[in-house]
Aminotransferase class I/classII domain-containing protein
Amino acid sequence: MTATASNLASPAWAWPRAAPSQRRTRCRRCASSVAVETDLAFHPDVSRAAESLQAEFRAVDRALALNSSRVAAAFRRARVAPHHFGGSTGYGHDDGGGREAMDSVFAEIVGAEAAIVRPQFFSGTHAIACALFALLRPGHELLAVAGPPYDTLEEVIGIRGSANVGSLKDFGVAYREIPLAEDGGLDWDALACAVRPETGCAFIQRSCGYTWRKSLSVADIRRAINLIKMQNPGCMVMVDNCYGEFVETSEPAMVGADLIAGSLIKNPGGTIAPCGGYVAGKQHLVEAAAARLSAPGLGVEFGSTPGHVMRALFQGLFLAPQMVGEAVKGGLLIAEVMSAKGYRVQPLPRVPRHDIVQAVQLGNRERLIAFCEVVQQTCPVGSFIKPTAGETPGYASEVIFADGTFIDGSTSELSCDGPLRDPYAVFCQGGTHWTQWALVLSELLNVI
């Protein structure tokens, strides 16, 4: 259920009824203390915060409506029908047109010439790696525009990990990055003179990753692309679009990005897609990325897909705007409540959102672990599991995850995680309805 403008405008919301809890009161006849039941679902501080965010929630619903309209129109134009949901085996030649329809729908939604949407992408990192290898050749330079990339890309680039494993560095691609400005945004002055003749690709990470910085708006990305192309029109621009899809009413491919890539178990999977990722953008570049996923000469024509997966990809994409809207509302509520309790948050309360990630600075290892434990305890899956910090493939530091999700690693469902390093920030995302985070916060206020 999505909060609508009508119920948001009511004087007092009808909170979902929770299991009765008890409070103490005085009996009028004998003045003794007795227990009475209440049906308040949330902690009073969380309820007050939610009521104060009515205007912000309505703004999210307006963006949700525009994005839903764009998605529905793309489905209609592609004439999506039940036969597109059938699976294929072996080489996957005979898939009933499902792959072609999905690629067409996705490309139109994000404003790209072409797209490849496949369950064979292991993760967003895998999709991004295929895109980078499609764009870069020996002697080229990769320029990271928004400071250091997300941890899992460090070994792809070759700035961490072993040599001779097939990183960009192993293939003779140099790397350079532009540090962020003091306010956590892009350093526009540095970017205005940063692109060199050998810069084959400028890489823009839209979301904050594990860095305490601002996530980038589509307007920021447009400005960055214009600056890059003014210096070297031949420099390709690649955007890591993870966590950003459907948060705004436009996407980076609509403002000049040559390629964008992301994961289907994040925003565009709508909590339904069980696996997969995408690359979208200029057609010849998408075909080059497809050759990295499969092999040169095979391109987009190969790859079997079980029937239930193809249907889930279509259904998840259709639901994605709604699920992203709920995740954004959850982030707004987290920022409002945790900021009021004295914690530093990023983004700040009530500011426009550019991805679904809400970071909270907890200050020490114990609070970070406690936060993740509460989130896990309120999840529908594995609520009895105690999150434990540890080494995770692709990450430079110990990381702790709380992800009691139906799909392993699905950050479009309610989840949080964070590296065990200063400033001990937790990064929250997802939620099929904002009230999931209201319930988490209600429990959390009793713990930290």
